[in-house]
Amino acid sequence: MVARRLVVAVLAVLALAACDDEPASAPPPADRPAGPTPSSALPAPGSPGSPSTAPTPSPVTLAFAGDVHFEGVLGDRLAADPATALAPATRALAAADLGVVNLETAVGTGGAPAPGKQFTFQAPPSALDALAAAGVDVVTLANNHVLDYGLDGLDLDALDAADVDVVGVGRDARAAYAPAVVDIRGTRVEVLGATAAALDPTADPTGQWAATPTRAGTADAVDPRRLLRAVARADASADVVVVYVHWGVQGDTCPSPDQRSLAGALVGAGADVVVGSHAHVLQGDGRLGDGYVAYGLGNFAWYAPGATTGTLTLTVQPGAEPGTARATVTDASWAPGRIGTDGLAGPLPGPDALAFLADRRDLQACAGLSGAS
Fold first, then answer.
1. Which residue, among 258, 255, 263, has the nearest Cα to 279 in the 3D structure?
2. How many CB atoms are located within 10 Å of the residue 334 CB?
3. Per the domain annotation, does 29 fall within a domain?
């Protein structure tokens, strides 16, 4: 993988900073590139060597998969060897310039199960080692399981020290909404994570997990205003803006009205790519205005076998200048799979892969999306 972690730069206009208790401005990190790395493409005919002609950035590939946890047989694989716990299923993630998944579990070893929750998940910090070894670059923890064992069961020090970038959770609200900033051959990609999985508080406490200025927690998107401001800031500094959202209705293959509304708002705020999970089934992916949306990526590494899943790889052409030209998804391809008894997604055989493509067209239609090409 060529992705390399950069220091996150907080670039905020005065009005937005006042709302979020963030500094009005900050200098860019010392190792941030001044702009896209010049490609080998020749200048446009008629203007050779023109200083006003910006070089065209090279395309980047971004790969996304859905929910990952380490329960059941996956816990056994993690305990046996983190370096190989996921690697057999993650070739498409590792092959892309940037690989992103949702880690659907608390990461730590302490705490106690949250009262009133039917399912509580927890994995040791070695789960992050397994993801890094599998070729994953960015992990979102903004979901309804990250605090299954309370704040005592979330090892924030381990998140900070991980070899993957972790988004969507933090020691306070500012950290929870901060993007991962990744350089890919001079193209600046910023990835944010947030959760809009608001459940009945009488049955599930996850609606109380939002980070505050003084308390650790998740980046909340039930009220999306702060997330939209964070996306607008990222759009001002990044070549490509990605938002991974935990949202939707479990078991529904078509996105809910709330998902569709939030997706439109995120694209309008500057997100080039919006992906999500939580429904535990695949939902449609395709173009939405100036952006590309994949509403539901399903389960990816999960204790229940049989589910159809896959890895979505997007080829993205960055705009010429951050904040002035939108990045464009020029190709979208799936590596379809099915979760086996080992908890990992294996490739679909030929006839099932063809059926997957037909189902994808149906999912696009019910999501109101069009294809990438």
1. 255
2. 19
3. no
Dig out the tokens for 178 from the structure: 């901060």
Q: Residue 52: which residues within 8 A CB-CB, separation 6 or more? A: none
Q: Reduced to 3 DSSP states, what percent helix, strand and coil does the chain have, rounded to the nearest 5?
A: 25, 25, 50
Whole-prediction pTM: 0.86
Q: Is residue 11 part of a domain?
A: no
For 332, residues 6+ apart whose C-beta sits below 8 A from its C-beta are 285, 286, 292, 312, 313, 314, 315, 371, 372, 373
Structure-block tokens of residue 85: 């716990």
Sign of CA dihedral 190, 207, 120, 246: negative
Nearest CA to 93 among 132, 140, 143? 132
Residue 10 lies in a domain: no
Q: Over the range 232-270, which residues count as b (16 or more CB within 10 Å of their CB) and which as e?
A: bbbbbbbbbbbbbbbbbbeebbbbbebbbebbebbbebb
Quick: pLDDT tens for 14-56. 333 444 555 333 333 333 333 333 333 323 333 344 444 567 7
The helix (H) or strand (E) run that includes residue 358 is helix 350-367
Q: Cβ neighbours of residue 83 under 8 Å, at least 6 residues apart?
A: 129, 130, 133
Residues 280 and 68: beta-carbon distance below 8 Å: no
Q: Where are the beta strands (DSSP E) in 231-281?
A: 240-246, 273-277
Q: How many domains does the chain have?
A: 1
Angle (deg, nearest 10), helices 225-237 and 257-269: 30
Paired residues of 194 in beta bridges: 245
By DSSP bridging, strand 106-107 and strand 4-5 are unpaired
What tens digit of pLDDT does each residue of 133-145 get? Answer: 999 999 999 999 9
Residue 23 lies in a domain: no
Spatial distance between the Cα atoms of 99 and 181, rounded to a whole number of angstroms: 13
The whole domain housing 177 covers 58-367
What are the distances in angstroms from CA 173 to CA 20, 42, 135, 195, 214?
9, 45, 28, 13, 8
Please report, for the domain that includes residue 363, its CATH number. Answer: 3.60.21.10
